[in-house]
Amino acid sequence: MKKTTLCGEVLRSPTHFLAFGFGSGLSPVAPGTLGTLVAIPLFLLMQPLALHWYLLITVVVVLFGIWLCGASAKKLGIHDAPGIVWDEIAGYLITMIAAPQGWIWIILGFVLFRIFDIWKPWPIGLVDSKVEGGLGIMLDDVIAGIFAAIVLQAIAYSGVLA
């Protein structure tokens, strides 16, 4: 699909518009990174919530994302098109579960999630290459978010950045 056609399709289709992170996935450079940046204002809206509400919303984002990413990929005819970044949004929200408050943690969570999402250590890379459809698009980022969350919490509890 030509870039201009894709742009028009993303902006016209609610499915693509959401899957493409409100259009951020249309970036010709680092769409996954821009998709993760889109997650920061969403996180800031969710951060004051009680943990159980934060977790519920994050689970809904993930479950909805399985359908959304699968539907967008199917319409495009491209499995896990680089512009589909809803999975990055979900992965970042997972990274930030129970994160300490402050911009240092927001930035550190962003960096950690991007490292795990790009590097794809085992089993992230295996899942990325073997699992198809919306579940496959989402699952590698969910695992990357879990890994990043574990490292973020370890740093927080170690007191290194206190």
From TrEMBL:
It is a multi-pass membrane protein. Keywords: Cell inner membrane, Cell membrane, Hydrolase, Lipid degradation, Lipid metabolism, Magnesium, Membrane, Metal-binding, Phospholipid degradation, Phospholipid metabolism, Transmembrane, Transmembrane helix. One of its GO terms (biological process) is phosphatidylglycerol biosynthetic process. Its cofactor is Mg(2+). Pathway: Phospholipid metabolism; phosphatidylglycerol biosynthesis; phosphatidylglycerol from CDP-diacylglycerol: step 2/2. It catalyses: a 1,2-diacyl-sn-glycero-3-phospho-(1'-sn-glycero-3'-phosphate) + H2O = a 1,2-diacyl-sn-glycero-3-phospho-(1'-sn-glycerol) + phosphate. It comes from the Bacteria. The keyword Transmembrane helix applies. One of its GO terms (cellular component) is plasma membrane. Lipid phosphatase which dephosphorylates phosphatidylglycerophosphate (PGP) to phosphatidylglycerol (PG). This is Phosphatidylglycerophosphatase A. The lineage of its organism: Bacteria, Pseudomonadati, Pseudomonadota, Gammaproteobacteria, Thiotrichales.
